[in-house]
Each structure stands twice: as C-alpha cells, then as structure tokens.
Specification:
Helix content: 25-40%
Protein name: Lipoprotein
Mean pLDDT: 80
Low-confidence stretches: 4-26
Strand content: 25-35%
Order of helices and strands: HEHEEHHEEEHEH
Number of helices: 6
Largest sheet: 7 strands, mixed
Distance between the termini: 80 Å
Number of strands: 7
Shape: globular
C-alpha cells in the first residue's frame, strides 16, 4: 500500500513539473515553398533576431509566414522607425485596420499587430488577417494565390477598375 502511494505521489509530482515548464520559443516550418522562404527572409531582414515562434504555411489560397516578438523586445517607436527600411525593401504602407499596420508589395501583404500591453486597449483587437496578442507582436506575411484574398490584391484590383 505504501509503495503504491509513493508511486502515485511520484507520478503526480512529475506531471506537475512537466506542466509548469516555461514555454520556449518554437520554430515550426511547415512549408518550404520558395515564396514562403522569401517571406521568412523578409522577416529576418526587417526584424533581425527578435523573431520567435515562426510558422509557415501554403494553402490553396495563399502562402503565409507568421512570427511573434515579445512586447519587451520591440517598442512602438522602434517599429515606427522601420519606415525607411520598409520603403527601401519595396513595402508600401496601405493603412491601419484596427490595430494592424498593413503594407503591400505587389500581391503580398505584410501586417504587424502590436501587443495589447503596448497599445493599452481594453479589449483585444486585430488587424485585417491577424489577431492581437496580449504580450506579443504578431507579424504576418501573406501572398495571395487566388484573387481578392488580401487587402493588397483588393487594393490593386480597385485601382485597375
């Protein structure tokens, strides 16, 4: 009986230790499509080594690359000072949607949503395609494969008509 209690106690202790581990950044690369690799390189050029939790996807509608940056690793002023670099890289500022800053490079949309901890809004909001996080910047690149998938493609079509 004592042996069973000790085994149960040890198992519970191990479960508690595993459940309390600190979340480490992850880098999940789910798509090695050339367009996804290009978008990942853009993120590294714009943000340097601050990028965390990278994910890339390729679907019927688009290529997507997503990143996070801890709120304390990028201030709003630091983000806004990247304007010259973005212009040099061919990104044109389209505007804001809620808290998301949206840029276009042909059919590719680049969206940055600052964290709630920096913006200090009462309720989590989003941008066009990405939702605001509490303590992380949400950064997303998306290239449309089909028409009118993102705001850049919609804007391009609107100018043509």
């Amino acid at each position: 009986m004592k042996k069973k209690l000790i085994i149960i106690f040890c198992n519970l202790f191990c479960l508690i230790l595993v459940g309390c581990q600190k979340k480490e950044p992850t880098n999940l690369i789910l798509s090695n499509e050339p367009e996804n690799l290009r978008l990942m390189a853009e993120g590294r050029i714009i943000f340097g080594g601050n990028l965390e939790n990278s994910r890339s996807f390729s679907s019927y509608a688009s290529y997507k690359v997503l990143y996070e940056i801890k709120g304390q690793n990028l201030t709003l002023d630091e983000w806004l000072s990247k304007d010259i670099l973005l212009k040099q890289r061919g990104w044109k500022y389209l505007g804001k949607k809620d808290n998301g800053y949206i840029y276009c490079q042909n059919m590719t949309q680049f969206e940055v949503v600052p964290p709630q901890s920096i913006i200090k809004n009462a309720v989590l909001q989003g941008g066009d395609m990405y939702k605001q996080a509490k303590d992380y910047w949400v950064i997303g690149f998306s290239t449309a494969k089909t028409s009118s998938y993102n705001m850049c493609e919609k804007e391009r079509k609107h100018k043509v008509s």
